[in-house]
Amino acid sequence: MKKIFYLLFIISLVSCRKEPVPPPCTNCPPPVDSNNINLSILIDLSDRIDPVTNPNPTMQYFQRDTEYIKAIEKGFLNHIKSKRIITYDDQMQIFFNPEPSDPKINDFTKELKVSFNKDIPRSYFDSVDKKYVELPLNIYQSAIKDGKFVGSDIWEFFKNKVNDYCIKQDKRNILFILTDGYMYHQNTKFDENKENSHKTSYLTTKLVKANNLTTSNFKDAIEKNGYGFVKANENLSNLEVIVLGINPEKGNPFEEAVIKEYWENWFKEMKITKYQIKSADLPSNLEPIILKAISGK
C-alpha cells in the first residue's frame, strides 16, 4: 500500500511541474504584419515611353503608365481606409534606376514618398491623391522633353538596392515594375557562361534572335541551353512583384512569351513566389488586377 501511495505521490509531483519557458529569441526577425504594406513602384524611363520612337495611337505608353500608377495609388489608399486608424503603418514610394538627370524629376519623387501612421490628419488622403494624379504625368513629360533615355538598370536595382529600398522585415512588401520587359543598361551588360548555362544581365530583341528563340519550342531551347537572366539576389521570398507593361517588338509571335519566361525563371531563382507579369494592356483592363494584387484577396 505504501509503495502505491509513494508512486502516486511521485506521479503527482511530475505532473505539477511547469514546462520551462524558452528564452526570448534575440536574433529572430520580427513577425510580418500582412495588414501593413510597404509598396514600391520602379519605373523604366527608357525610350519605351517616347511617343515618337514607340507610338501607340490607341493610348501612348507613358499615359498607360500614369493610369497604372493611379490604380496602384487607389489600391493602396483603399487598403489604408479598410483598417482602423490606430493600426496605420504603411508607406508607398517611387524609384528609378539610375536616377534621372533632371532635378525636377527627383523632387517629384520625394513628393511621392508617402507614409501613413495613426497621427495623420484626414486631409492627408486628399493630398496624397492630388500628388498621384498630377506628379507622375509631370515626371513622364519631363523625361520625354529631356530626351536622354539612358535606359533602366533593373538588374542592378535587384542586385544592390531592392533589399534596402523595397523590403521591410515587419511588413508585406509589394513591388510594381513598369517596363516593356526588355532589360538593358550599358553599365551592367555582361554574360555569364558556364557548362549548360548561358545567362545574361540583359534581354534585347537582338538577343532573342541570336538565341534562336523565335519558334514554338523556345521553352525547350531555353532549358537546354540554360538561357536566362543572371541571378541578382539570393532570397527575396518576402517580396511580391507585379510587372506591368510587357511590350514585345513586332515580328516574332513568340517574343512576348520569351520575355515572360525570362522574368518568371529569374523570379523563381531569387525565391520570389508571388509574382505576376502582365502585358501593356489598357489601364481599364489592368486596374482590377492591380487592386486585387494589393488587397491580397
List keywords for this structure.
Rossmann fold, 10 helices, six-stranded mixed sheet, alpha/beta, globular, three-stranded mixed sheet, 297 residues
Describe this protein's structure.
The relative contact order is 0.15. The strands form two sheets. The protein has a six-stranded mixed β-sheet with strand order 3-2-1-4-8-9, sandwiched between helices. It has 297 residues and is of the alpha/beta class. It has helices at residues 2-16, 61-81, 103-111, 123-146, 154-160, 162-166, 205-210, 218-225, 255-269, 283-295, and strands at 33-43, 89-95, 114-117, 171-178, 191-194, 197-200, 227-229, 239-246, 275-279. The protein is globular and about 55 Å long. Mean pLDDT is 90; it is low at 7-11 and 13-21. It has one domain: Rossmann fold (3-Layer(aba) Sandwich). The chain has ten helices and nine strands.
What is this structure's SSE topology?
Layout: H1 2-16, E1 33-43, H2 61-81, E2 89-95, H3 103-111, E3 114-117, H4 123-146, H5 154-160, H6 162-166, E4 171-178, E5 191-194, E6 197-200, H7 205-210, H8 218-225, E7 227-229, E8 239-246, H9 255-269, E9 275-279, H10 283-295
Helix pairs in contact: 2-4, 2-10, 3-4
- pLDDT < 50 runs, ≥5 residues: 7-11, 13-21
Q: How much helix, percentage-wise, in residues?
A: 40-55%
**Major β-sheet strand ordering:** 3-2-1-4-8-9
CATH architecture: 3-Layer(aba) Sandwich
State the name of the first-level CATH class: Alpha Beta
Note the quaternary state here.
single chain
Question: Which topology does CATH recognise?
Answer: Rossmann fold
Summarize the structure in short.
With 297 residues, the protein is of the alpha/beta class.
